[in-house]
Automatic annotation (TrEMBL):
It comes from Algimonas porphyrae. This is AB hydrolase-1 domain-containing protein. Residues 263-517 form the AB hydrolase-1 domain. InterPro entries: AB_hydrolase_1, AB_hydrolase_Est10, AB_hydrolase_fold, NTF2-like_dom_sf. SUPFAM superfamilies: alpha/beta-Hydrolases, NTF2-like. It comes from the Bacteria.
Amino acid sequence: MLREAYRIQNASVAANAYTDDAIIEYAYGSDRTRHVGREDIEASFSDFFSQIGTQEQIDLNFRIESSAPEGENLRDRGVYRLRFASGAASYGYFEVERVIQNGASAMFTFDRATDATRDAFEALPGPVLFDADSEQLDPAYYRRLTGRYQRPDGCDIIVTQSAYRLFVRDGCTEVWQGLNRVSGLEWTGGETVLSSNVTTTFKFDEPTTSDSQTLTMTQNGQTVSAKRNTAYTKDEISFQSSDDTSLSGLIYRPVEPSTKASVVLIHGSGPQDRNGYASIIAVIADEFAANGHAVIVFDKRGTGSSEGDWSRAGFDRLAEDVIAAEKALLADEALSDRPVIYAGSSQAGWVAATAIERGGQAKQIVLLGAAGAAISVREQNIYNTRIRMGCSGIDETSIDLALRQQNAFFDFVANPAMSDTLQAVTEQASADETIRDWLFPDAESVDLDGDNWFTTLSLEFDPITVWADYLGQMTFIFSEHDDSTPTDRAISRLKDTIGEDNLQTVLLDGAQHLGLLASGPCDASLSTVSRFHPDLFRALTDD
């Protein structure tokens, strides 16, 4: 009830969370106030909300430090967070007492709050009380844990973050673990990238005024400490795209002097921030920066701190954002004379090709697992569907029927006069229960004027024509077990069309879409794989 009251800024609803004779005490700094009874409590909430303004949405959340009986009531202690739509946040220690009715806690009888910090909130063990599954990591806090640490044996341990968790890459073994939070400074990892099992415990020392300096890892009863190895610094940056959308990100700057090319990292599909899906952008940025390249990463429009809406952005719009990031790099006095590399994975191929087509000045393209290096969105979708259906055990006859329906759908999107063909094949395919979930909508269900991926993206865009005219160096890295890109077709098409003067194709044997080792395309999810291909990062940053 109290959280909802803050969300809608309703003092009456907030006061109803308290008993008639409840007491609230606030002790913030030198201010001390006390409110007794529901009427006085409502007045205090009314005064608070009037200072905020109805346009400023508020989210209230808690981390509980302790919860124990207090006589016939329940007393909780912890830290609360008030987060505002503007991005600002405030924190406080709380101590509350709640009435227990019918075996469950109900209204508050006592509520005391004092000053706290973001660090106090983040350091506590356990999840937040509300919406824990969608809780994103506080970038300002967890950024201080990320970076490179070096073990006594000389191996670098690379800590990166996604929107939701930390990841750890072992630079010697290429083991990559997505971590599970115990507390802000303690995390665990399992035997695969994403695993709920615990094989390793990671503990960071307290980052006081700077970054955490020590990472302690415990596995199989053995504990090893790694010391921060500062290979680069990270500076916040904001810049405008060509439509005046404000985009935010980071520039990685190598500590050692370097004249190497600067890198613009490009997102894959979906709502990816500056760190990327499963922190893949951050992992690649780290490798480039540690090898002497300045790197710019940014939140895709509509994610993180960037304005806009990624779901309404086609390749042309996303390409303009890449060009804007390139210009931001070149506007930096220390980097203005450096050539630029476009790099990224997956959908980044189509975006990079469009950026070149629209005037981007990159002298080199480095792509991983990018269907956009050689085929269209339509071809990629058909291939991906075939692989995933096969992995689901669907027979070839049914797969062929589903793909015929999908191809009819793409024909209809390109030419609405093909609606009768789509309707006919959809009716036929819908009779097969095993493939109904794989079918695209029929003609009558499609809004071709809506903001759908199939109307936003250029389904038939062929990047090969761009690369055929491109004079810069191209390094395209493909994986044997990529379930999203037909590797053999892509490599063959590139070599037949472009030749090999300025093209290098790399095949990672036994790897999946993101360059992680896998036994096959059906065994390629992050819950089944555990390490990167040993040649991946060398291929990405090879000069």
